[in-house]
């Protein structure tokens, strides 16, 4: 396991999670698109997709060979020892009804073991690493 990759990934994850968090904070109570996601009552908003695009693009810019699995986009890239797991808006149902309890999460796995976990609550600006 490459410690330099982990350190760089941690710095990037923190930076982009805050960037995505700023967008979700700005769009809270001010989003346009809301649609049903599945038969369990889950919903998705344009904020899920905007945040997801930001996170994926910036990870791919630095780690183009890493595989990504994101909640809305699914699996991206070919199988790799390094796998990013992304939930661009964890708690979308809360977000959609105006309940200020939601977060963004990014995890990096190496050979199926978590090496980085970052969770950000945009409204409280609480960052867990």
Topology overview:
Elements: H1 3-27, E1 34-36, E2 43-45, H2 46-62, E3 67-70, E4 74-76, E5 82-90, H3 92-97, E6 103-110, E7 113-121, E8 126-128
Parallel strand pairs: 3-5
Antiparallel strand pairs: 1-2, 3-4, 5-6, 6-7, 7-8
Helix pairs in contact: 1-2
Summarize this structure as a short list of keywords or feature phrases.
two-stranded antiparallel ribbon; alpha+beta; six-stranded mixed sheet; 3 helices; 129 residues
How would you briefly describe this protein structure?
The protein contains 3 helices and 8 strands; from the N terminus they run αββαβββαβββ. It is α+β, with helices and mostly antiparallel strands and 129 residues long.
Q: What is the molecular shape?
A: globular
DSSP helix fraction: 25-40%
Give the percentage of residues in beta strands: 25-35%
Distance between the termini: 19 Å
Number of E-type strands: 8
Provide the gyration radius in Å. Answer: 14 Å
Description:
This protein is α+β, with helices and mostly antiparallel strands and 129 residues long. It has three helices and eight strands. The chain has a six-stranded mixed beta sheet with strand order 4-3-5-6-7-8. It starts with a helix and ends with a strand.
């Amino acid at each position: 396991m490459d410690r330099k990759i982990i350190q760089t990934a941690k710095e990037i994850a923190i930076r982009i999670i805050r960037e995505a968090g700023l967008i979700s904070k700005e769009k809270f109570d001010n989003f346009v698109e809301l649609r049903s996601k599945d038969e369990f009552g889950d919903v998705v908003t344009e904020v899920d997709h905007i945040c997801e695009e930001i996170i994926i693009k910036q990870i791919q810019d630095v780690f183009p060979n890493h595989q990504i699995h994101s909640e809305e986009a699914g699996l991206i890239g070919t199988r790799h020892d390094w796998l990013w797991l992304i939930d661009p808006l964890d708690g979308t149902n809360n977000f959609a009804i105006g309940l200020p309890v939601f977060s963004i999460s990014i995890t990096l796995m190496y050979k199926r073991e978590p090496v980085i976990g970052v969770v950000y609550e945009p409204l409280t600006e609480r960052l867990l690493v």
